[in-house]
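Shipment paperwork, digital attachment
Item: protein structure file
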Amino acid sequence: MPIPACRLEGDPFICSSSSFSSIGEDFPLLQGGACVKEEVSMARATDVEKENLQYDDGLGLEVDDDTAHQISHDPWYQVGFVLTTGVNSAYVLGYSGSIMVPLGWVAGTTGLVLAAAISLYANALLARLHEVGGKRHIRYRDLAGHIYGRKMYALTWALQYVNLFMINTGYIILAGQALKAIYVLYTDDHVLKLPYCIAIAGIVCAMFAFGIPHLSALRIWLGVSTILSLIYIIIAFVLSIRDGVNSPVRDYNIPGSNNSKIFNTIGAVASLVFAYNTGMLPEIQATVKPPVIKNMEKALWFQFTIGGLPLYAVTFMGYWAYGSVTSTYLLNSVKGPVWVKTMANIAAFLQTVIALHIFASPMYEYLDTHYGPGKGNAFSFQNLGFRVMVRGGYLTINTLVAALLPFLGDFMSLTGALSTFPLTFVLANHMYLVVKKNKLSPLQKAWHWLNVVGFSCLAATAAAAALRLIVVDSKTYHLFADL
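Attachment content:
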């Protein structure tokens, strides 16, 4: 039976029907099947819920209207390509060195498969929480605020945006490294240093951000991103095969002392989590057309099946070809024609520009919604000028941090431990427990609590390992280093 539409007018909830069938615990304002006709004090709602609301295509689900970006607009396959663009970004060129080298064949292969399965499960849980309390929650912080209250809203906001800021900064470093790799292919005069390449990358990322008003507007750029990903992945894959065939003797022993192996293993586990997760699933799910949960699950299956194949191919082949000496940027290990390696690095640079826009979109949405001139024409003088000023300022900060700390990987590991683990695994399982507690069997509850406790311990361990790496590497690297 369809749920009668309600709207929020000032303080009271007004219902358009005189009776309801029982609709369960997910609709706490409509208990016992009776429609609340009288005014209901807004003190019962959290501050997070006091936003302007609209209805989701007549489905009876309230949707946050206070956003300058498009929602409920994209087919599931477009959202699937958004997810795979992040998974197969130029970061995949580092997984042979950052995951397989510290873990080896058995643990590395098992870890990649298990991390994919666990990540799919956790993201599916989060996707099913998108519609809670008769409302679509288009932001992670809104969902957490609805379930836990204002304090958790603020904490989730802080964790998510610190995480995304570090990822965005990492993308700019990665783009700068691709430019530097191109330069080194043709000259070794060291005139063009990494900080200069990072500055160029930041400018290009900003120019792209000015022209793409919101996540849904990527559209054709997702196809371009897929082609670019295939270019550098195929080139790295083919050149690795050739090098592996010509170099039959390879060492696959895990390098380092026993003490360093332990911490490197923990860091590699954090990289496994980073490889598959965005930390912004509700924001991506907000763009998908109804039925939202069903379509988002299709997109997730696409990401973790077809979308993951390029990642596996280049990661395993790179490690097979070079063993324990595999570079953390695979294109620095491969040998081949200069023009081919140049094309791969150009593709990696351009794809990074597109991928960064995905992970920056929650920040853009916040800035556009709260400080922008309004919805209107996205390319009006006012809106375009606002993007140039605000997004340009945000990416300038990213670029400055990237140039200042080009060894940011250690800090990203710490951020991942303190935010990616809690957001993707701990919080997702606990929120599911809170929302579905009366519908879960004791065994199911025990399973979710095991995930909450287990991933909390893993996050604490990964944070300790990241702090150690920061202390060790701070003795080696310096600010504005030309790595």
